[in-house]
Amino acid sequence: MSETFKLPPLEIEEYRLANGLRVVLNFDNSAPVVSVAVYYNVGSRNERPDRTGFAHLFEHMMFQGSENVPKAGHFQHIMKAGGTMNGTTSSERTNYYETLPANQLPLALWLESDRMRSLAVTQENLDNQREAVKEEKRLRYDNQPYGQIFDLINEMIYKNFANSHSTIGSMDHLDAATVEDVQEFFRIYYAPNNAVIVLSGAFEAATAKELIETYFGDIPSQTLPPELDVTEPVEVASTYKEWEDKLAPFPAFLIGWKIPPRRSAEFYALYLAGKVLYDGDSSRLYQKLVKGEESVIQLFGFTDERRGPSSIFIGAIPKPEKDLSKIRETIMNEIHDLATHGPTTEEMEKIENQLINDSVRIRQSSMSRAQQIAEFALYDGDPTIVNTELESLLSVTADQIRNAVGKFLNTENRALLDVVPAGKG
Amino acid sequence: MTPELRKIAPAPLAPVAFEIPKPIQTTLKNGVRVVIFQDERLPLVSYRLAFHSGDIHDPRDMTGLTSAMTSMLTEGTSEYTSLQLAEKIERLGASISSSSSDDFTIVAASSLSLYATEVLHLMAEVVLRPTFPEEELDLYRRNTVENLKFQRSQPGFLAGEQAARLVYGKHPYSKVSPSAEDIEKLTREQVVKFHTARFVPNNAMFIVVGDVNKDEFLADLNELFGDWEQGSGVSHDFPEPPERNARSITIVDRPGSAQSNIVLTNLGVKRDDPDYFPLIVMNQVLGAGASSRIFMNLREEKGYTYGAYTRLETKKLAGEIEATAEVRTAVTGDSLKEFFYELERIRTEPVGDEELADAKNFLTGVFPLRAETQSGMTTLIVNQHLYGLPDDYLQTYRDHVDAVTPEQVLAVAQKCVRPDEMAIVIVGDAEEVLPQVESYAASVEIFDTDGHPQDVEKYKMNNNDQGTANVAGKWSLMVDFQGQQLPVSLTLEQNGESVTGVLETMLGNGDITGGMVTGSKLAATANAEMQGQPIEFAISGKVDGNAMSGTLSAPIVPDPLPFTGTR
């Protein structure tokens, strides 16, 4: 199948401005729409131990206005032009993006360049956004059932501070932050030579280049911070923890493993092993636990993809009367089976078709194209990997999957978090 | 670029045309209507087989039958078991799913166009030859009952349930969910019979969007669905939704709720109403988005909530208009005041030119964004055909939006937004909420979270029976903030039911001006300043002699903080 299917490559042009800003253009006029994604090479991994939560705080600060755009003006401009926008923060990067009708490209570039050039880092904005972030933490983490479990298990899996601490960060650190701290963080990390801008959609290359030069060309570059050390010891930091969650209606558990960095052969193999184990109604664990033994209300799994050591998770919310250790045994037995016999021919065929299907679907939207391209440009220095990634995934063999599962998804390398409902009744 | 040039937002480039070609339409011999929209941008295909009957067409005594039958389609056919089906579908990297809504039932499939024929075969299997195995139905019943239990813990569900009942009365749109008893009594025999009766070609429409060859697709469709026999159509005579002529308040008592979930609603219009375009523009100005009036007022100016919106629900046979927000308990009454202010204003003042232009720009601008992906495009086409909208509907959508005038917006607001006859539904702590909202309607009813009516007098008595408590004096309170006890001092002066005073906290002091004592309950707000920002604390307390307990709310914390203290 893979021999007969060739995905047409995305048309990509890449260059750098004199100030170091990396520009990637992906021309596709299948809809009169344009997406702009600006990725800054700063995530929670870059934070100082006494200033956690800074990268995410910036995601908020970047909507607080700049020299020519008033507070919340970014949002209003985009809405009124018929567009959508947002920003997100992870351990690896902070991104800002918008999708607009194609003729509104100048507006998007003007808005993104104004904040890259002249973010309004004032005491008032800082105070205001500190409070907003605290509210967000309470709403999304502290006040949600199971809201804190991923941060908790990351602390168990990783030993290097750059990897282990949460993106939302410490409220004490945010409180202690001064305007000078924030200005310095902005100067270093939000510099053009620490960013990638990707345009995807319907536009003319010459017009786009001229606009990019006009808006971004004279933003000064900065001395970049030294390379970051995100290496980890092989073993996980701790293997068992019980967490009392006063909002959780049912007990639950989460298992996590530390695995190799993204785009390594073993990472690819484990990503595909995950598909066999927990993706879709025909996956092994769904059939065992949701259909067969009917033990769980919810089953989930995913890989957390990082430039440094990454991780893979499997979690479940069992039905009220079920025995958690028995469910975990079922999971470990399936993993053991995969490590012994590898995936079946049918499973390999399924993975192959799913990978092709996924990569075609992701290309439909200008925003998802822009985001994928930006990641390859930022993390790997090569946006055209977007055109070869599918091949790399399809070349993984059943043997490689079997070996990687055996090597990484064993009991010794496992962090187990038990969530216990507290204060019920 | 010079700083001068950067000062104002740049003008857009020349507009880029956005042409949506019209689909091809035909009908199979047995009456299945077919719509083919060729979209060759990528090697993908999406199928939708839609039936013009949905949850509202459940037999009167068998609520939940349509959704059970629909969910069970992929759980076994004459050729394949549930597992074999899942494996077959996923091995192609494809998906097949089925779902029902109020008006329609849809079987959806999508895949790489390479597997278009195989997936169509599997779809025919699922639609024409499901076996509804007893053990799969049993699992469905047990899982659904668990989910129904979970649903009743969600304030949004409880609010929606009451709002639908009040707007639609005896019309089946009033049922938002079956009950556990409904689900438990469903039998396999009923499901099988119902499938035979409802899944008939003269009740169906097949829509395909994507990279397909029209002739090959029609040949496959004829082969697979050509022998499918007609049945009797589905016709129903539903009771009309009731006419409302006064405001009413319905509270679902959820003791200890940190927030009040508010829904204000009245009957609106159905999907094919001629006023649809002026209405969506009106709704955009009023409350559809985060730059609309209601959001700007309740969230940005007043800080009562994370979000406040209005929504138009337009179904096949009727619709409703809703204003919603989740607000801090202490500002439930104040929120109603702002809601009604905005609902009144949109009916009385013509909308400004700039505001109108912004709303229209948003609606016309996001339209092509929705058509970018095949699933977005498919949804647009499916809706157009299911609701019987004109053939050029998608082609002319943006022209229709652009043509809306301020006069039309005012006219549809007066016709459809009817604050004087709205149903006010509030899910929250009834004892706290009732005194704040009583004055907004002549009638009040209270339910528990299981939907059982409660005695309203009981809630009123709690507030009034001991007369007005004496709250004057200096109180020392301890506020529980994430496990820490923070001291707060409260000095009150009392004149009958009204209270003034000072709230002193570590963060700053606030003046209390218009506090109230109702029975044993104290409700007051203190306006303080914190790091140069005005901040409003809301105090809600219950006095028992020289002891007081209650909550302190502030916009900076999502939940009210509990306190206890003495005088």
SSE diagram, text form:
The complex is a heterodimer of chains A (425) and B (567).
Chain A: E1 12-16, E2 22-27, E3 33-40, H1 54-61, H2 73-80, E4 84-89, E5 94-101, H3 105-118, H4 123-142, H5 149-157, H6 161-164, H7 171-176, H8 179-189, E6 195-201, H9 205-216, E7 240-245, E8 252-259, H10 265-278, H11 284-292, E9 296-304, E10 310-318, H12 324-341, H13 345-362, H14 366-380, H15 389-394, H16 398-408, E11 414-421
Helix pairs in contact in A: 1-4, 3-9, 10-16, 11-12, 12-16
Chain B: H1 3-6, E1 24-27, E2 33-38, E3 44-51, H2 65-72, H3 82-91, E4 95-100, E5 105-112, H4 116-128, H5 134-151, H6 155-168, H7 180-184, H8 188-198, E6 204-210, H9 214-225, E7 248-253, E8 259-267, H10 276-288, H11 293-301, E9 305-314, E10 319-328, H12 332-348, H13 353-370, H14 374-386, H15 393-402, H16 406-416, E11 423-428, H17 430-437, E12 443-447, E13 453-454, H18 456-464, E14 473-481, E15 484-495, E16 498-505, E17 508-518, E18 521-530, E19 533-544, E20 547-553, E21 561-566
Helix pairs in contact in B: 2-8, 4-9, 10-13, 10-16, 11-12, 12-17, 13-15, 17-18
- Give the overall silhouette of chain A: globular
Number of strands of chain A: 11
Q: Helical element count of chain B?
A: 18
Strand content of chain A: 15-25%
Looking at the structure, what is the overall shape of chain B?
Answer: globular
Give the number of DSSP strands of chain B: 21
Strand content of chain B: 25-35%
Oligomer: heterodimer
**Overall pLDDT score of chain A:** 92
Structural class of chain B: alpha+beta
- Gyration radius of chain A, to the nearest Å? 23 Å
Instruction: Compute the number of helices of chain A.
Output: 16
What is the helix fraction of residues of chain A, given as a range?
40-55%
Q: Write down the secondary-structure element order of chain A.
A: EEEHHEEHHHHHHEHEEHHEEHHHHHE
End-to-end separation of chain A? 56 Å
